[in-house]
Design a protein that fits this description.
Number of strands: 5
CATH class of one domain: Alpha Beta
Radius of gyration: 49 Å
Number of helices: 13
CATH architecture of one domain: 2-Layer Sandwich
Helix content: 55-70%
């Protein structure tokens, strides 16, 4: 029995080996022959796909980060709201009871670029080639620049007014609180030119940081000018002085141009009088010497002198007209401004809105608290990494 089983197993193993060899033989016979040798490798194909950068941020990353921040802020909402409301309330109360009010003096001026009556004389002088027709000083842009210029501010601050110099009133509180500054200012200002210029420059820079404002509307031709400080009387006097100085300066410039036109016309009239007298004398002498004109040459000479005399008479008449016009306009010289609106007491007062201060204070506080809580957690994560 054991022998039979061994023979069966041996026969089964031999049959299995024979079937395996036959299958391998059939596979080798039916497979497609290789077209390339094994040692011939195909070239490596390029990879056209871009690798994902490690620091690339996707929309999913942003959403997850926002969710993370929200999970940080939301548990702290009570603290954030309470502190924000508290700070907002403090800001509102401080604005209402402790903030000093500001006062604004406003002017609405119409600058007459052809004012002062000099436009006619100036144009006539320019047409005759006498100069004086330049109008660079008579433009709204020039007025706007001059009214807030350092020179104008210095002149206004050092003028002797009924209430005292503006520069002394400007530094009154500083002089009372700072004895060292008071001694230096009292002894040097006005006596030491370098120190005086330095102080006035500081005032000019401070005034151009919100104290003074000038605008010009090209469509209406209206120049707006305003002064804002914390002293009502000082605000009014400063605005008045700056406008009056500007008006006086431009009026003086127009007067100088008018005088220049008068001198130019007068000089031309004087020279024409001399030329006309000389021509009349030559014509008279020629007629006395040639009472009986015979030749055409003699008649032509007399005609030439007559034409010269007539031409000089016409030019003389025009320049006399220009001279009289410039003199009359100079006598009736007007200021460059027409006042649409000017400041009156009490001045416009602005103490600031307590409600706006409260809302602004609450918003800023809330924003800073949110940044604080998020930053604290993020800083901890960075330290842990």
């Amino acid at each position: 029995m054991g022998v039979k089983i061994g023979q069966c197993v041996e026969g089964y193993s031999q049959g299995r080996i024979i079937r395996t060899i036959s299958s391998q033989f059939l596979l080798n016979c039916t497979s497609k022959p290789q077209e390339t040798r094994m040692d011939q490798q195909l070239p490596e194909q390029p990879n056209f796909t871009q690798p994902k950068a490690d620091d690339e941020i996707t929309l999913k990353d942003i959403i997850l980060k926002i969710q993370e921040w929200w999970s940080i802020v939301w548990p702290q909402r009570t603290k954030i709201i309470a502190l924000s409301l508290a700070i907002g309330l403090v800001a509102a109360l401080y604005t209402k009871f402790f903030t000093k009010p500001s006062y604004t003096a406003s002017y609405q001026l119409f600058f007459q670029e052809e004012s002062g009556g000099l436009s006619g004389a100036m144009r006539l002088a320019s047409s005759f080639g006498l100069g004086g027709g330049g109008g660079s000083a008579s433009s709204s842009a020039t007025v706007q620049e001059f009214i807030t210029s350092r020179n104008n501010i210095a002149h206004a601050m050092t003028a002797d007014l009924e209430n005292g110099r503006l520069i002394d009133r400007y530094y009154a509180e500083v002089i009372e609180e700072n004895e060292e500054f008071a001694v230096e200012f009292t002894s040097k200002f006005g006596a030491n030119q370098r120190y005086t210029d330095s102080v006035l420059t500081q005032v000019y820079l401070a005034f151009n940081e919100g104290v003074l404002g000038a605008t010009f509307d090209e469509e209406s031709g209206v120049l707006g000018f305003n002064v804002t400080t914390y002293d009502e009387s000082f605000t009014y006097d400063l605005a008045t002085q700056l406008v009056q100085n500007t008006e006086s300066q431009f009026k003086d410039w127009k007067r100088q141009k008018g005088l220049s036109a008068v001198r130019a016309f007068q000089g031309k009239v004087d020279s024409l009088e001399i030329a006309l007298d000389a021509t009349l004398r030559r014509l008279g002498e020629y007629q006395d010497q040639n009472n009986s004109l015979i030749s055409a040459v003699d008649k032509m000479e007399q005609m030439r002198l007559t034409i010269d005399m007539e031409s000089l008479k016409v030019a003389y008449g025009e320049y006399i007209k220009g001279l009289e016009m410039s003199k009359a306009e100079l006598m009736n010289l007007e200021g460059p401004f027409k006042y649409f609106d000017e400041p009156i007491f009490p001045l416009q007062k602005d103490k600031g809105s307590a409600a706006k201060a409260g809302v602004f204070g609450s918003i800023i506080t809330g924003f800073l608290l949110v940044l604080f809580f998020i930053g604290r957690v993020e800083a901890g994560n960075i330290m842990a990494d």
